[in-house]
């Protein structure tokens, strides 16, 4: 008795559909990959990054998360349009065919890993034992490489599919896909775009937190204990100078309206008041523009220290902040003082500062 032939009758299982969705999926992944590289490179000081415009990192990281979210409905629709290929027989027709199917397996696994771990990272829900940034960065290269190979192999099919018009239910399927992608973006983009928050139910509410600004790591979680005799130490070639918080508060203060832009995609803008780092450098005989290592009271953690590059220490709005929105910093925002610099990832805006060291 012959085996029944599996037939797929849905009009969506068509190269005209998969080619069009594939183009938009490639755009979404391309934007996500490039903006992710920017964020990763800034955190590892791989290239020069300016202090202006102050919202540039806010924009690039918002695009990173938003394009990743937009890709999810596109990815599901793409898989639906091509999954009958999984049932083709014979399973392998030739060595090139085997390589093609293997590359699709790598592509699917890498994209699935990036999408799922990215969504969990945005939600700050870590169910795995590996370090997310390193794994996410490494697999991103695998995903992009496999996408390029796939596009190169399927380019004749893509051209043929784009050249043929779509109509009827295929057009409706494409419109539904665009709509689903748009709804996903609208539901989450409020974490980046402030005016969308009232209609963005799945966004990180950046305005919910102490003093109207969200926090990722609380003082308790970081194990912060501020000594009664706390002093800020500024290490320079001329020696070490120490400041009490009262002495810092007595210095000329600057207020700057700056965003905190988190790697998870959320951002919040606040009025920060404190001493410009450039002024502190001048007090210890150092010209603004020198790189400065910033150390925290946090006893452990990958981000207990950061380095402020020269463009940021020279910027008059790079502050050793003492106040936020007219109030002394809450412990969760970095009391007794923290760094707030324009156009920097939130993880590098070091809180609970104990030492500045000129490099």
Q: Any key phrases for this structure?
A:
2 domains; five-stranded antiparallel beta sheet; membrane; five-stranded mixed beta sheet; transmembrane; disordered N terminus; alpha+beta; Molybdopterin-dependent oxidoreductase; OxRdtase_Mopterin-bd_sf; Sulfite Oxidase, Chain A, domain 2; 359 residues; 9 helices
Please summarize what this structure is.
The chain has helices spanning 15-43, 56-82, 95-122, 132-163, 168-188, 219-222, 245-250, 277-283, 310-313, and strands at 232-236, 239-243, 254-261, 267-276, 292-296, 305-308, 319-324, 327-328, 338-340, 353-358. The protein has 359 residues and is α+β, with helices and mostly antiparallel strands.
Explain what the structure shows.
The protein is of the alpha+beta class and 359 residues long. It folds into two domains: 15-199, no CATH class; 210-358, Sulfite Oxidase, Chain A, domain 2 (Alpha-Beta Complex), CATH 3.90.420. Helices cover 44% and strands 15% of the residues. The strands form two sheets. A five-stranded mixed beta sheet has the order 2-1-10-5-6. Strands 3, 4, 7, 8 and 9 form a five-stranded antiparallel beta sheet that branches. Strand 7 (319-324) and strand 8 form a beta hairpin. Helix 1 runs antiparallel to helix 2 and helix 2 (56-82) crosses helix 3 (95-122). The protein is elongated.
């Amino acid at each position: 008795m012959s085996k029944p032939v599996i037939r797929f009758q849905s009009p969506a299982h068509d190269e005209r559909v998969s080619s069009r969705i594939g183009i938009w999926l490639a755009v979404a992944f391309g934007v996500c990959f490039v903006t992710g590289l920017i964020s990763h490179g800034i955190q590892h000081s791989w290239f020069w990054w300016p202090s202006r415009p102050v919202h540039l990192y806010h924009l690039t990281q918002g695009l990173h998360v938003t394009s990743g979210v937009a890709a999810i409905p596109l990815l599901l629709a793409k898989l639906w349009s091509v999954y009958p290929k999984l049932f083709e027989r014979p399973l392998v027709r030739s060595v090139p065919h085997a390589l093609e199917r293997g590359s699709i397996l790598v592509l699917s696994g890498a994209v699935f890993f990036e999408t799922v771990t990215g969504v969990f990272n945005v939600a700050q829900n870590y169910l795995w034992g590996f370090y997310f940034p390193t794994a996410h960065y490494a697999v991103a290269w695998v995903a992009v490489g496999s996408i390029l190979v796939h596009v190169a192999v399927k380019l004749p099919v893509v051209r043929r599919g784009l050249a043929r018009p779509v109509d009827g239910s295929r057009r409706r399927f494409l419109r539904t896909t665009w709509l689903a992608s748009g709804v996903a973006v609208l539901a989450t983009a409020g974490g980046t775009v402030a005016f969308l928050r009232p209609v963005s139910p799945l966004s990180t509410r950046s305005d919910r937190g102490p003093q109207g600004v969200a926090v990722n790591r609380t003082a308790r979680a970081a194990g912060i204990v501020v000594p009664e005799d706390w002093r800020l130490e500024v290490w320079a070639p001329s020696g070490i100078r120490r400041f009490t918080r009262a002495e810092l508060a007595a210095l000329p203060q600057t207020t700057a309206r700056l965003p905190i832009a988190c790697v998870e995609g959320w951002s919040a803008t606040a009025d920060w008041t404190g001493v410009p780092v450039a002024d502190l450098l001048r007090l210890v005989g150092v010209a603004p523009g020198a790189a400065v290592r910033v150390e925290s009271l946090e006893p452990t953690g990958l981000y207990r220290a950061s380095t402020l590059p020269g463009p940021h220490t020279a910027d008059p709005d790079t502050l050793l902040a003492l106040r936020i929105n007219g109030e002394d910093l809450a412990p969760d925002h970095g009391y007794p003082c923290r760094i707030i610099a324009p156009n920097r990832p939130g993880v590098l805006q070091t809180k609970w500062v104990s030492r500045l060291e000129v490099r």
